[in-house]
């Protein structure tokens, strides 16, 4: 089996998406190369800086030229859903409770239209 495993992160404090390759970690902390830490002391500044991140995994699909990650908002026909890992597979869950889910692998026309952090308004309709 040969698949790409990678992640991205939403910086909850700075309100921006970052590539997880920008984060290094040791036994005590996870620090961004630009001196911000999730927990612990920055090796570079010698002071504690705490940041919170939401980590999202690449699901191995590319839709409309974009890599699909957990937390992405997907549109297929008239349905909109959020990519989640449920029952051993990645699916797009309907935007409301009980909204159903669909398997992204069989949705030919599914498109990434945003994500839950940068575009929450897409889920409010």
Describe the structure.
The protein is mainly β. It has one domain: Roll (SH3 type barrels). It is built from no helices and eleven strands. Strands 10-9-8-7-11 form a five-stranded antiparallel sheet, with no helix packed on it. A hairpin with a 4-residue loop joins strand 3 and strand 4. About 9% of the residues have low confidence.
Strand and helix map with partners:
Blueprint: E1 7-11, E2 16-19, E3 23-25, E4 30-32, E5 53-63, E6 66-69, E7 72-76, E8 79-86, E9 89-94, E10 101-103, E11 111-115
Antiparallel strand pairs: 1-2, 1-5, 3-4, 5-6, 7-8, 7-11, 8-9, 9-10
What is the count of DSSP helices, taking H or I runs of 4+ residues?
0
Q: Enter the CATH topology name.
A: SH3 type barrels
Cross-sheet strand order for the largest sheet:
10-9-8-7-11
Mean pLDDT: 74
What's the CATH first level? Mainly Beta
**Separation, N- and C-terminal Cα atoms:** 40 Å
Low-pLDDT residue spans: 32-42
Largest sheet entry: 5 strands, antiparallel
State the total count of DSSP E strands.
11
How much β-strand is present in the residues? over 45%
CATH superfamily: YopX-like domains
Query: How many structural units, i.e. domains?
Result: 1
Overall shape: globular
Share of helix among residues?
Answer: under 10%
CATH architectural arrangement:
Roll
Order of helices and strands: EEEEEEEEEEE
Helix/strand/pairing class, anyone? Answer: mainly beta
> What Rg do the Cα atoms give?
17 Å
């Amino acid at each position: 089996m040969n698949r790409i495993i990678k992640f991205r992160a939403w910086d909850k404090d700075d309100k921006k998406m970052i590539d997880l390759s920008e984060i290094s970690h040791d036994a005590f902390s996870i620090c961004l190369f630009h001196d911000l830490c999730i927990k612990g002391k920055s090796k570079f500044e010698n002071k504690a800086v705490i940041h919170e991140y939401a980590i999202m995994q690449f699901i191995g699909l590319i839709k409309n030229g974009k890599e699909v990650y957990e937390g992405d908002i997907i549109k297929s026909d008239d349905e909109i859903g959020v990519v989640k890992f449920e029952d051993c597979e990645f699916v797009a869950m309907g935007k409301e409770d009980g909204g159903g889910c669909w398997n992204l692998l069989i949705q030919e026309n599914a498109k990434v239209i945003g994500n839950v952090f940068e575009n929450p308004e897409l889920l409010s309709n």
